[in-house]
Specification:
Layout (H helix, E strand, L loop, with lengths): L1 H11 L4 H22 L11 H10 L7 H4 L1 H23 L2 H13 L4 H21 L1 H4 L3 E3 L8 E5 L2 E9 L5 E11 L1 H17 L5 E10 L1 H7 L5 E5 L11
Parallel strand pairs: 4-5, 5-6
Antiparallel strand pairs: 1-3, 2-3, 3-4
């Protein structure tokens, strides 16, 4: 159900993939927190009792008994539970509890493919983006996020398109469009970033723009495409796993 919840938020409520991922993660945190304080084993993603879910939503609201926990992350926890309740209410209108349980089990057991894989990649790319934002100075020496202070360069919008990360050189003011891809990136990504560079050149004709594709693996087709331009470079990433104690 977790992946279904993420897809629903993206398609039905037009939430950004990063927000959808954070909300889904927050539901797991609420499950653990509520289980601890209620002395019951409660997994919200498997909870069929909509009235109990409504009660839990109230517990984490501004005036609820767990309002302090609900206010964590500037209210992310509270908003996540309220959003999940809306999702479940919609489920109640469209299917019965047995169907919901079957969907929940299938979400956990079926291999990731097609649309599920898209949501997974969205989530992973948002994690990668978040890590990169915190390490811009070390990963891209001399550059800063465009619109420093306002973070305008994060998911920079231009002509209805979104650049994952737009950086600006602190001295030359050269722009660097960063495109993030989880897993393997192929030649299509080159076309995507080439379009971004064209849009930037049109909007900032006096400023030089370059691009960099950051991905897990480079497909041969992408490597060949990038050889045709010195404006686009390729980089691969490695993620460091860090374990944190849950509070």
């Amino acid at each position: 159900m977790k992946r279904s919840f993420e897809k629903w938020m993206i398609t039905q409520e037009q939430k950004k993939p990063n927000t959808a991922y954070q909300y889904a993660q927050s539901i797991n945190k609420v499950s653990n927190h509520y289980s601890t304080y209620s002395q019951q084993n409660v997994d919200l993603f498997r909870l069929l009792d909509i009235e109990l879910l409504r009660s839990i939503k109230e517990d984490y609201s501004l005036n609820g008994r767990f309002s302090d926990f609900g206010s964590k992350g500037n209210g992310t926890i509270r908003n996540a539970v309220a959003t999940f309740y809306r999702y479940r209410k919609e489920w109640e209108m469209g299917s019965d509890s047995e169907d919901l349980l079957i969907t929940s089990v299938e979400d956990e057991e079926e291999p990731i493919n097609s649309d599920d894989n898209t949501v997974f990649n969205f989530s992973y790319e948002r994690d990668l983006q978040s890590s990169m934002i915190l390490q811009v100075e070390s990963l891209f020496p001399g550059y800063q996020i465009y619109g420093e202070g306002t973070l305008e360069g994060v998911e920079y919008c231009i002509n209805g398109k979104r650049i994952d990360l737009l950086l600006e050189h602190q001295v030359s003011k050269e722009l660097l469009a960063v495109e993030l891809k989880a897993g393997t990136a192929d030649f299509k990504v080159f076309g995507q970033i080439a379009m971004y560079l064209a849009l930037l050149a049109e909007k900032f004709p006096e400023t030089e723009s370059k691009g960099v594709i950051v991905c897990g693996e480079v497909d041969y087709s992408l490597a060949m495409a990038c050889k045709m331009s010195d404006k686009v470079s390729l980089k691969t990433y490695e993620m460091l796993l860090v374990l944190n104690d849950y509070n």
